Amino acid sequence: VKMPLDYSKWKKIEVSDDEDDTHPNIHTPSLFRWRHQARLERMAERKEEKEKLAEQKSSAEKRVQDIQEKLKVHGLDEKERMKLELEMNDLKRQEVEFLKKEKELEDKERLEPWNVDTIGHEAFSSSDLHVETPLTDFSNALLEVKST
Questions:
Q1: pLDDT (0 to 100) of residue 56
Q2: 55-80: average pLDDT
Q3: pLDDT, average across residues 23-41
Q4: What pTM, to 2 d.p., does this model score?
Q5: How far apart are CA 107 and CA 102, in angstroms?
Q6: Residue 117 contacts by C-beta under 8 Å, 6 or more apart in sequence?
Q7: 3-state secondary structure string, 27-45?
Q8: Tally of CA atoms within 13 A in the half-sphere of 123 that contains its CB
Q9: Contact assessment for residue 88 and residue 66, using Cβ atoms and an 8 Å cutoff
Q10: At a CB cut-off of 8 Å and minimum separation 6, what does 111 contact?
């Protein structure tokens, strides 16, 4: 029984040969340039969103550490302690929201179709140089002995 080809892995690719057929009234290079520019802008927005989230998360973690250090001090009056504990609870809620946002960003990135800029990446880079070394006097002498 012959298995039909499974094309599902190519469903999520934004690269198409159909782009060669555009309407005659549309300037094709401009259209490609606009699409590429829009793609780059989306990627930049996503990167900026990630950086902003990471920055907010790190500042919140730093604030949590500061509050924990202040709570360890025994000379705080009850009002100060309550205020710090409330702020700590707010920061913990923010942390949960940050985790949700991170998950959403990861899902967006995973589900986004591949395009020309993201379809391939260099897995490893290596260069092999094959350089012939010149024969030394000793090896020349061996060659002469073998030939005689």
A1: 95
A2: 89
A3: 88
A4: 0.63
A5: 9
A6: 39, 40, 43
A7: CHHHHHHHHHHHHHHHHHH
A8: 1
A9: no
A10: 12
Residue type, 45: E
Token pair for 122: 């260099």
**At which residue do the structure tokens 């000379």 appear?**
75
Report d(CA 113, CA 122) in Å as an integer. 19
Q: What is the DSSP string of 77-134?
A: -HHHHHHHHHHHHHHHHHHHHHHHHHHHHHHHHHHSPB-TTTS------------PPP
Backbone angles phi, psi at 13, to 5 degrees: -110, 130
Q: In whole angstroms, how large is the CA radius of gyration of the chain?
A: 31
Alpha-carbon distance 97 to 34, whole Å? 35
- Cβ neighbours of residue 73 under 8 Å, at least 6 residues apart? none
Q: What are 95-134's pLDDT values in tens digits?
A: 999 999 999 999 999 888 888 778 877 778 888 887 777 6
Q: Cα–Cα distance between 87 and 80 in angstroms, integer?
A: 11
